[in-house]
Every structure is written in structure tokens, then in C-alpha cells.
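This is your field. Have a critical look at both lines of this record:
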Amino acid sequence: MTNFIAPPPAQGLVKLRGRISHYQSTHGWASFVFTENDQTTMGVIAIAAAAAGLGGQAAGIAASASAMEEAADYVEFQLDGQPVKGWVWRSPFNEGDAVEVAAEWQRDHYEAFGIARPADRTIALYPHCSRGSLRHYRNAVKWWVVGGIGFCALAGALMLSAIGLEGLLSEEMLVGAAASFAFFAIMTWSLTRKWMPFVRLAERVFKALELPHPGNVDLVSTSKAQRTAEDPGEFGTFYFRY
């Protein structure tokens, strides 16, 4: 599957409850979000994130920047006789699971955008959906400050070895550092805006599933806090706990 798949328009989602039957999960590839220019920007930010010590985030961004298409799971199942289909980044679900699904009726099926298993609070969503708007903006500020400082620190270390401390503290170098920090801020803001359709979709899913304070939900953070030694590497990046 290679077509571009955009988030749905702002329509109402409903919450379905039931037990999964006739479950199928197909691991495929699709272009969910980024253009080539976005990928270039993300590659630069990934380097800065690694320099700032944000290794996990850097790896995730680098993976997204590496190809126009991304791997995801297309799931199909029935929920108490109702047909359900949809993309999630990774599906940890199985035949017989009792789940809640945030879905929208299409011509002949419910299109799922979020699937939750209340028994262990596991949740999988449409790709790039993991935070509400408040957390999204807070995360963007963190990327700007921490990533920008990391980027400038890396560049400064390289320049220090080349021109020495006196040259590094020259007016020209300080102006260049300020310009680099501003450039990084512009890139971060650009990507923050690019993610907003997915943030809005995530909030709609959180509301449909009746999670408290949808704008303040950050599944990356809650999953990190609940991670155990038994959890696979994909947990916390491609599916979560709430």
C-alpha cells in the first residue's frame, strides 16, 4: 500500500465496546504525513536531539525521516458482529480481546482510529497520534530549548577544536550561534504545525474513549512511567499504555 493516507475530517467518533473476533492484522507501508522538505527538517532535528542526549526521540525522528512511507498495521476484525477496519502504528491485540474502539462509520464498516484494551490499559492509535494539544505544544517548547542548545553545543565543540576559544567567542561566532538557534526554532515550529492534524485526531480519540483531560494526555510519558522489563522495544513508541 503506497497511497497517501490523511487524517479524517473533523467528524464525530463513537466508542464501540466488544470482544474481537475474526481478527486480521496486515503489516504494510503507507505515506501518512511528511513531504521531502519535512524529512530534511526532521533529519536535522534528529541530529540535534542526539547531541542533546534525547536518544530515543532522535531514533524515532530519524526513522520517520528515512523514507516517505512508514510501516504500520492495518487491522480488520468484528466487534460483536460489527465490521471494524483501520490503521494503527502497531497492533498488540489478539483474537478474543475485550476492547474499546474510537471509530467512525464508513459505507460498509467502522473505521478505527484508536483501540484500547482496558484490562491492561494498552492502546494503539492511528500513526503519529500520541499527545493532546497542550502536551504537544509543551513538547515543542522542550524540543526548541533542549534540542536548540544541543545543536549549538555540538557545533560549538566542533568549532572550538578548529579555531580555539578566542575565535569561538568572537562577535561573528556568537551571531552565528544566535542565528542557528533561531533557525532551529523555525524548523521546530514548522513541524509542530505539521503535526497538528494528528494532534486534533488524537484528542478526538481520547474524547471518544472518555480519557480524562484529552488535551493533557501524553501517551509517550505515561507509557515510559509504566514500562516493565517484559515490554518489547516497540512499546512506548508505536503503541502505549494510558
Q: What stands out?
A: Residues 51-58 have pLDDT under 50 and may be disordered. The chain has five helices and seven strands.
